[in-house]
Write a structure and sequence with these properties.
alpha/beta; Quinone Oxidoreductase, Chain A, domain 1; Rossmann fold; 2 domains; seven-stranded mixed beta sheet; six-stranded parallel beta sheet; 18 strands; about 25% helix; globular
């Protein structure tokens, strides 16, 4: 089989690999769609290094197959896998983390928070930018028949991350939410929040992304490059601010504005990875009783719940994808993705 490998410094190779054979508690997937995620760009851009990284996430000692949004069909099962767990021909997503399987976080479906350290497929273990992928049977998440493989790939990280954050925020239909950043995760949050009945204010400095947010259901769109986002949100909310806010951009200014644009007793949530933020504790938070939380991806159970939510409400998640690529086009695909000017992209290996 073939797979895409990040060599660091924006270098990519499509290499030959042996076809995987499942161990007793493993399965092999034929990958039908493998999404490209913004967090891939850190591995793509940086100089490659081996060994453990921060936060309990383990890094492989050798370059591995990239891609952590895999979706496909079970084509082989290990000797100790029961038919109830997986069967050949089953349509599945993958919860792309492997932990010890027994600690309190793994038992709750949060393998990425494993007390012994977690492996992320696509950086610590072989990922989905390949014809086939071997995974523990415990990481499989059923893909509803109503959903395409591309939709399943989106839910396997970006869309699932947005859904997980909205769940953390306990968003209600009568509330207004302001979503900073309308890249793939922010745009997913806009689409899902509308399906939950909320009023959505979408923000982005890109006119193209602002327009896409409107197409995905945003009630109001603000370009912070042309407006003071905090004042603009307050003008749209009777001077109070949004009930809930979410930052998907990682930009320091957006993170601060997300807190400042939250009304008293409201909640702000940070989703974007990396970066910093400076807040004045008393005026920005303490004296307005603001709750500030963070949301990192989602549990295996929430991934399954997100897929059912999308299927039941017939949400067109596949509209997120603006580009579709083959394995041979991976270098071209990531060069374009690196510019971060378009929508979401997916690799279709088979």
């Amino acid at each position: 089989m073939r797979g895409v490998v990040f060599l660091g410094d924006r270098q990519i190779e499509v290499r030959e690999f042996p076809d995987p054979e499942p161990g007793p508690r493993e399965v092999v997937l034929e990958i039908k769609a493998s999404g490209m995620c913004g967090s891939d760009l850190k591995l793509y851009r940086n100089t490659w290094t081996s060994g453990a990284v921060s936060g309990g996430i383990k890094r492989s000692d050798v370059p591995v197959i990239a891609g952590h949004e895999p979706c496909g069909i079970v084509v082989a099962v290990g000797s100790a896998v029961t038919p109830q767990e997986a069967h050949i021909g089953q349509r599945v997503m993958d919860h792309h983390y492997e932990g010890c399987g027994t600690c309190k976080h793994c038992s709750a479906g949060w393998a990425q928070m494993c007390l012994d350290g977690a492996i992320v497929f696509g950086s610590g273990g072989n990922g989905g930018h390949a014809n086939y992928m071997k995974v523990p049977v415990s990481t499989l998440v059923p893909l509803p028949d109503a959903l395409s493989f591309e939709t399943g790939a989106a839910i396997s990280c970006g869309t699932g991350t947005a859904y997980g954050a909205l769940k953390r925020l306990s968003l209600h239909g009568e509330e207004t939410i302001a979503i900073f950043g309308q890249g793939p995760v922010g745009l997913s949050a806009t689409q899902l929040a509308k399906a939950m009945g909320a009023r959505v204010i979408a923000l982005d400095i890109s006119p193209e992304r602002c327009e896409r947010a409107r197409e995905f259901g945003a009630d109001e769109v603000i370009n912070p490059g042309n407006n003071d986002p905090v004042e603009a949100i307050r003008e749209l909310t009777h001077g109070e601010g949004a009930h809930k806010t979410m930052d998907c951009s990682s930009a320091p200014q957006a993170r601060r504005a997300a807190v400042q644009a939250t009304r008293s007793w409201g909640t702000a949530c940070y989703v974007g990875e990396g970066g910093e933020v400076t807040l004045e504790v008393s005026p920005d938070m303490l004296r307005r009783q603001i709750t500030l939380m963070a949301s990192w991806t989602f549990s295996k159970n929430i991934q399954a719940e997100c897929a059912e939510f999308v299927a039941d409400r017939k949400i067109d998640v596949e509209r997120l994808f603006t580009h579709r690529w083959t394995l041979d086009q991976a270098d071209e695909a990531y060069k374009l993705f690196d510019k971060q000017v378009d929508g979401k992209a997916v690799i279709l290996p088979n």
